[in-house]
Amino acid sequence: MLMCRDLARIGSDYIDGKLGPADTLSVKMHLLMCRNCRSFIGNLRESVQLMRGHSDYRMDEDYARRLDSAVGEALKRRDNE
């Protein structure tokens, strides 16, 4: 049985349609029984829509790759210390 804390962890993936059929069904079953999580998912959906609706900014893909690489290197250095 899916717990509230589990739903909070995968809520974004649920909204984005990134969960498999079994996890999606678990979320839907939980939402049928839990008013608080229905409210959480509703608020999360609204937040995502607001962010998408007010954001025309698109990050340069080359910059995103360089940033991702720099973060990865920093984490490796930290782990090796």
Helicity, in percent? over 70%
Task: From the alpha carbons, calculate the radius of gyration and give it in angstroms.
Answer: 17 Å
Number of helices: 4
Content of β-strand: under 5%
Distance between the termini: 40 Å
Count the E strands: 0
Which blocks of ≥5 consecutive residues have pLDDT under 50? Answer: none
- Kindly report the average pLDDT value: 90
Q: Which sheet architecture does the biggest sheet show?
A: none
Overall geometry: extended
Strand pairing plus helix content: what structural class?
Answer: mainly alpha
Order of helices and strands: HHHH
Can you give a write-up of this model?
It is built from 4 helices and no strands. The protein has 81 residues and is an all-alpha fold. Helix 1 (4-15) packs across helix 2 (21-33) and helix 1 (4-15) runs parallel beside helix 3. It is extended. It starts with a helix and ends with a helix.
Task: Summarize the structure in short.
The protein is mostly helical and 81 residues long. The protein is built from 4 helices and no strands.
Topology readout:
Blueprint (H helix, E strand, L loop, with lengths): L3 H12 L5 H13 L1 H19 L7 H20 L1
List keywords for this structure.
81 residues; mainly alpha; 79% helix; extended
